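Reply to dn_fold:

You asked what the input looked like. This is it:
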Amino acid sequence: MATLGNGGTEIYPLVLGSNTFGWTSSEQDSRTVLDDFVAAGGNLIDTADVYSAWAPGHSGGESEIILGRWLATSGKRDKILVATKVSQHPQYSGLSADNIEAAANASLLRLGTDVIDLYYAHFDDDKTPLEETVAAFDKLVKEGKVRYVGISNYSAERIEEWFRIARENDLTLPVALEPHYNLVTRKNYETNLLPVAKKENLAVFPYFALASGFLTGKYRTEEDLKGKQREGMVKGYFSQEGLEVVAAMDEIAKSHDVAIATVALAWLRHQPQIAGPIASARIPEQLPALLASTKLDLSADELSTLDKASAAVPEK
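and this is what came back:
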């Protein structure tokens, strides 16, 4: 088990993403996935107040509502940690102090809980002074509405500035970082963010760990994508070099008798500072391959093969 930065809270080495809840996952499937994840030892659920405002007829908060209903009826609140995010909900855009407070209260209501275990600044807001944002997160911690603070989609420079402001003003320090990182998207994390994560001992939880499904191996041609709900998200990962990464994973997966997705997540688990990749299961049948990644140890040769193949991928 990894720990949550300097906080010491133990985290199962796979985080359940819930962006599909109420979007591509039915409520019943979402509940089954949650039950199965916790039964396997999983304890961190990742959501955001904006999930899934992009879907037709949705307004944001759908994922939190489904998660909240499960928390209310499952009796498992004390077994799990809830991570959610602020800045992108259509009604609560940005990171001003008033907006952060209002968005946190709305998330707490939808989740039906008294405390958010890990609260992320979802995207940087250059229209709001960072001092105001950092103080607003600290206020939520001191009020007992948030346990830990996290940062997502910030540049290394802005993360360092956040820490400087927090230290100079004796405010709550972040313990988690959620970056875009996977076998076909490596440069920004490894070059820019990893040094800061190491310096500040941030627990890193990569999102798009499976590149929106591209790294599951089910999309081998652009023809495979046509008409799929994730078509637009997956298309950006397509390249011949990316397909060669999938082919390399396929060989390794066969040698271990596991799914390709299992290999992709296991590779992330082997990378520096990673506490656990975030992955979503649209239906319960997809979850076992994700869980298997927590037990798959890749050899030095296998890691080298994947590193070599993924280093050739052109990042856009």
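The two ends are 34 Å apart (CA to CA).
Hope that clears it up.
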